[in-house]
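Question (not urgent): is this output format expected?
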Amino acid sequence: MAIDHDLDVILSKIGGPSTFTYPGGEAGRAGRLKDRSGLKAPRENGRAPYWATVDLIEYQEEPELMRFGYYRGSSSQWGSQTTLAARLPVWKKLFVKAAREKKWFRKLLEDVMSELNRS
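Got this back:
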């Protein structure tokens, strides 16, 4: 298997700081990137490469947050400037709601579980 230097750099940020700034003057937040999974997205012709990530972020004395994000162009260019980071129960509620309402989303989750069960 080929080594992906950019993905190694992206994953090496685990344990480092994770900061949020909010529009409208609301105070920002600072936490720590507790864990991360990532993969290189298929590259479209003429487009910069993307690495998609799912992060687990922890804060002192607060519940952990999950965030979906991406790097674009290189392993040092965080591209997700306005991505949602929410507590795990919020993601669960959103996923359940979307799976109930949207067949395509439910099928995605079913495909994920099916593939996990084959491993």
